[in-house]
Every structure is written in C-alpha cells, then in structure tokens.
Design goal:
With 264 residues, the protein is mainly alpha-helical. The protein is 74% helix and 3% strand. It contains eight helices and two strands; from the N terminus they run αααββααααα. It has a two-stranded antiparallel ribbon.
Length: 264
C-alpha cells in the first residue's frame, strides 16, 4: 500500500507564512520601483515576477517568527513588509524624480510649459521634456543593469532587515524623508547648464531690445530660445549616463542605509 501524504494545519500555516511575507515585500517593491512599476508592465507580470522571486528567495531566509498568519501580530508583520517594500521602491524612484524635475526646470526656461500631456505613471499632467528625460533615464538604468542590482538589493534586504514582529525604528524613515531633498538639488544640477545658457540668452536679447527698440523681442525670442534649448539639450545628452550612474549607485546605498536605520 503506497504511503499516504498528509499535511497538518500547522505545516500548511508555516509554508504559507514562509511564502506570503517575502512575497508581500517583493510585490510592494515591484509596484513602486522604477521600470517595474510602469503602467505598460501588466499586473500579471508584476505578480508573476514577485511569485518567482519569493519562491527563489524564501528558502534562504532561515527561521521566521512563530506567529500565526491570521492574528494581530501576523497582520502587523504583513503591514511592515508592505511598508518596507514600498519605501525601498520609493527611495530608488527619487533618482528618476530628480531627472523629471530637471526636465520641468529646462522646459520652463525653453518655453515648453504648455507642451504637457497626461502621464499615466504620475497620474497628472507632465511636460513632454520631463517625460523624455525620464524615458532616457530608464534606458540608462537598464543599460547599467540597475534592474538586476535592484533585485539583488531586494534579496539582501531580508538579511539586512529580517522579517520580525518587532516595531521598526523611526531613524530609517527620517533618512528616507531627508533624502527627498536630493530630488531638487540633483534636478537643478542636471538642468543648470541649460538654464544658465538660456538665462544668458534672455539677458542678451533684453539688452538688444533696449539698444534697438524696433527689434521685436516677442517675435524672435521664443524661436531663438527654443532652438538654443534644443542645441544645449543635445550637448547634455552625452553627459546623462556619467551623471546618472553614480546617482543610481547612491540610490542603492541609501536604500541599504534606510533598511539599517529601520532595525530596532
């Protein structure tokens, strides 16, 4: 008579816990991380990727808290994993927000503030130039294997901040909030050459208008500003890779520092 395979409710609960808690953190990160969170990536792909990562990483996690899944403590751990995964994705999203801010600054100086469209990623109106720079940043991110480093950082996060029922420390959240200042600083640094050039050009046209009043600044000012902005943007494109690559590395480093700051 062949042996009967039986599974107790305790064993089933242990298996569900070992899969569900890592899966929730991974799905939260994939739903907020750059590239993976794009609307063009279907929900089925996001959930399937999170399932594959959970199956691959769950056996390496070691012992998990002996907490029933359907309990207040189990629900608290579930909420913690959602917060941790979403915060990790948000910390990497700041680099792309920096690029988008640079596009906003440059677009305003070039007179392209009216050239906006609905961006499903942000859920609001976005300048065309900001969206263009964001797409270029995504291509650079993929070219330097940033998506693979992101997955490796996700796997490392379970060792840096293991799954536990202890409350998270507040210092980690403070590090995440303070890192938001880099969005405006980095965006301004990236767009500064273009902004300085256009401001100099506008100053020259203002002086020319004062010297020669018959010179119609409104007739030629916008085409000249737009052409000069496009020319400067073309020159800046070759420096976007060297500029963004260390920012991506700093984003991964800040993510690990954020996880260490959450350790109780």
């Amino acid at each position: 008579m062949p042996p009967v395979f039986s599974v107790t409710s305790d064993q089933l609960s242990v298996w569900m816990v070992a899969f569900l808690w890592p899966f929730v953190r991974m799905l939260a990160l994939i739903s907020t991380a750059p590239v993976f969170s794009e609307k063009s990536v279907s929900r089925t792909v996001k959930v399937g990727l999170a399932v594959l990562l959970a199956i691959a990483i769950a056996p390496t996690l070691g012992a998990l808290p002996a907490v029933p899944l359907v309990s207040a403590a189990g629900l608290w751990i579930l909420v913690q994993q959602i917060l941790i995964g979403a915060a990790m994705g948000f910390s990497m999203k700041m680099v792309f927000a920096m690029v988008q801010a640079a596009g906003e600054y440059a677009g305003l100086q070039m007179g392209l503030s009216f050239a906006a469209f609905f961006d499903p990623t942000s859920g609001g109106q976005t300048m065309v130039l900001a969206r263009l720079l964001n797409v270029i940043a995504m291509l650079i991110f993929l070219a330097v294997d940033g998506h693979l480093v992101l997955i490796a950082t996700l796997a490392e996060s379970f060792h840096t901040l293991p799954i536990a029922d202890a409350p998270l420390a507040a210092s980690g959240w403070f590090l995440l909030v303070s890192a938001g200042s880099q969005i405006f600083l980095g965006g301004l640094i990236l767009a500064l050459p273009l902004i300085a050039t256009l401001l100099t050009l506008n100053l020259a046209m203002g002086i020319l208008n004062r010297v020669s009043p018959q010179f119609s600044i409104f007739a030629v000012g916008f085409p000249i500003t737009l052409l000069a902005g496009i020319a400067m943007l073309q020159l800046l494109m070759q420096y976007m890779g060297p500029f963004l690559e260390p920012r991506f590395a700093a984003g991964f480093t800040s993510t690990l520092e954020f996880l260490q700051g959450l350790r109780p």
